[in-house]
Amino acid sequence: MTRQESGRPLVGRSIPRREDRRLVSGRGRFVDDIALPGMLHAQFVRSTVAHGEIMSMDLSAVRRVPGVVAAFTADDLAIADITAQLGRPRSQFVPTAMPVLARDKVRYVGEPLAIVVGLDAYAVEDGLEAAHVEYAPLPPVLGEETALADDAVLVHGEAARNTLVDVSLFATDGIDAIFDAAHRVVEVDVTTGRQNALPLETRGAVAHWDDREEQLLLQTCTQVPHQVRTVASRCLRLDERAVRVVVPDMGGGFGQKCVVGREEIAAAAAALRLGRPVKWIEDRKDALSASFLAREQHYRARAAFDADGRILALDADVVCDMGAYSCYPFTAGIEPLMASAEMPGVYKVPAYRVRGRAITTNKAPTAPYRGVSRPQYVMVVERLFERAARELGLDPVEIRRRNVITDFPYTGVNDITYDPGSYLESLNLCERVIRDEGWYDTRTAAAAEGRHVGIGYACFSERTGYGSSAFAQRKMQVVPGFDISEVRMDTSGAVTVTTGTMSHGQSHETTMAQIVADALGLDIARVRLHQGDTDRVTYGWGTFASRSITVGGSAVRLAAERLGDKLRAIAAALWDTEPEQVELAGGHVRRRGGDGAHDVLTHQEIADVAYLRADLLPKDIEPGLTATATFDVFNDGTFSNATHGVVVELHQGTGQVEILRYVCVEDCGVAIHPQVVEGQCRGGIAQGIAGALYEEVTYDAVGEPSATSFMDYKVPTAQEIPEVSIHHLETPCAFTATGAKGAGEGGTIGAPAAVLNAVNDALRPTGTELDHTPITPQTVHRALNPEPFP
User: Fold this and answer.
1) Spatial contact of 122 and 67, defined as CB atoms under 8 Å apart
2) Which of 302, 318, 458, 599 is the right S-S partner for 753, CB 3.0 to 4.6 Å?
3) pTM of the model
4) Are 661 and 722 in contact (CB under 8 A)?
5) Do the Cβ atoms of 516 and 528 come closer than 8 Å?
6) Residues 378-432: pLDDT tens digits?
7) Where does the pLDDT of residue 2 fall: very low under 50, low under 70, confident under 90, or very high at 90 and above?
8) Equal fold, 34-138+200-252+257-290 vs 482-632
9) Is the dihedral of CA 110, 116, 120, 124 positive or negative?
10) Residues 43-78: pLDDT tens digits?
11) Omega before 752 cis (within 30°)?
């Protein structure tokens, strides 16, 4: 039902998604669906060693393989490097160039060395097998201990002790004295495994030169099309006007596609060199082992508490393994800077000290992945509260109640001002649901039977709507933040809206249209969204960090309101009244208080005047119906919040962790489309559970990744993911034009901590506590069965 039919606002309603008919009927168009005349196919010769000097690379046999058209090295294509920068002194940040194709040295298994182009994918695969590369192997750097050793082998010669970032953002005066005088000090040593974001659609690109437009058309699945255009133009030494990036439908990204990759640049260079279209589609092996990875982090943290369980100070040392290179544009600082700035989270922490480091190792590079350090530091802080509750003899929920922020706006010890949220309310509601459903009784009964049932919670906030000022605080040389939208009505009264965000499953075609239709009083069927085309969208920073509705949606709302103002002004001139006497509602333009046919105009009638009868317009109104707006968040951002509650049972014979119940109480401000918000929660929670219990990328002693297929990399299915009960609270945001906060990452942020706490609660009779994810069946089995098998 449309607004015109119902007369009710669309925002806040779960209307049918406009994307669904196309996608579920197989009419979506993804990168691999693109077929162009004369198109060639490409794949990459990749390093087979983790660390070594390239002594020789012989591609002559490759070029003789039937069907192979060309094989190019870095020297053949002469592409400029990709270098991400922070405006920090050398003592805090070391920039490292990432060559599009490796030259002289390789730094991880799977690093691209050469691009092979052929008539079809089969010829290309044959060509790859004919490549001959000789290396002088170097000792691989595979973890924190070897990376930071005084005599460490260097991944990059310019980065001493393999440290790319070393920043101490906060150090409260007198913090050591606070710890010395505290009633109780608790410590945790938390590590998290390396993960793959694993979008359903792997990365890919189709590139070709358009002679008529004198323009490179690069069609690729990216969350950040304008950033890809900027980097491609600079690497290929083209005017930015001469590069057009277009994103078709996209099957997921989760952050892995919000950085600029090397392969799409190399494919574009090959297309320019050959004068023919070139397609590259990442295969699943490369996606698992050589694509951007995430998450491998180590936290040593301690917290001081008084006798009543109130936190007095937090001290943390954060080390993030970022792999071989800094990602563009965020750099290797993305993980440690995020953790350092936001670790106090939802709690009133009076004193804070943190050191954040990013190290480089011989593993595939790291990119942001849904949550970006927040699943890790939330797990750290929540583990500290759990441990303090146990040592002080307090209920784990009660200790949180005593410490969560309740007075807003609240400026934390980390110099961040939090906008109003429902931190205490979400905690109380989550516990009440768990208790009312009888799970505490279940836990007690299970213990009497010798079974291991545990209950765990996690409270957190999700900083969303990062504006330019927030990214500037990280000293990024490329500062994302604002968004631009244009809303244009044609002579039929239909509307086209552009956004710089990029949907990869978030339902932008529906939610953005809801915002516009409400602002213009228009039938939503007459609103069309354009995104992901750098020639049609002025500029945009794409979709990441839950910014689409907070920033992009706000720009859309402001542009639509400006267009609405012009519609009212034209109608007022035609009726010889004031614009305030004109309303846009129910699919029409109406004069307030009027009830005759002459008091109602259609949008098309107004558009006719604006475009076709400009002689009827007052002199102060320009012809046409187009409005543009920008939006930026100039405060510290917006903060969604949630509490997750989990009930698990540990099976003594197998070590399996079974999730019996999962409750999420979330507050993302005004929910534009509640069903979409729930989908974001459920999908995020699934990925969070995956990190808590299943997924990990590991390496052998020489740096070979062990998980190169789904036989080795455990991805949970619907069988492992429980039904999730979602409860909504709503604290409208004062800093966005829609009242919405972000909802994209919260599910992933809370799940690992809640699951880990539940497992540790179930393990309490054993005296064992776990502080590493993923929690494997082997680990749980050892905890439940300390005696070895006879």
Assistant:
1) yes
2) 458
3) 0.96
4) yes
5) no
6) 999 999 999 999 999 999 999 999 999 999 999 999 999 999 999 999 999 999 9
7) very low
8) no
9) negative
10) 999 999 999 999 999 999 999 999 999 999 999 999
11) no
Answer yes or no: are the C-beta atoms of 399 and 388 closer than 8 Å. yes
Tokens of 373: 């350090």
What residue spans define the domains of the chain? 34-138+200-252+257-290, 369-468+638-784, 482-632
The CATH T-level fold of domain 482-632 is Aldehyde Oxidoreductase; domain 4 (3.30.365)
How far apart CA 599 and CA 254 sit, in angstroms, is: 49
Please tell me whether residue 24 adopts helix, strand or coil conformation.
helix
715, amino acid identity: V
Tens of pLDDT, residue by residue over 637-655, are 899 999 999 999 999 999 9
Task: Compute the residue count for the chain.
Answer: 790
CATH class of the domain comprising 369-468+638-784: alpha beta
Residue 5 pLDDT > 60: no
CB-count burial class (<10 Å; 0-12, 13-18, 19+) for 220 = buried
Domain 34-138+200-252+257-290 classification at class level: alpha beta
- For residues 134 and 58, what is the distance between their CA atoms, to the nearest angstrom? 9
DSSP secondary structure, 619-669, as one string: TTS-SS-EEEEEE---SS-EEEEEEEEEEEEE-TTT--EEEEEEEEEEE-B
Taking only the tens place, the pLDDT of each residue in 265-308 is: 999 999 999 999 999 999 999 999 999 999 999 999 999 999 99
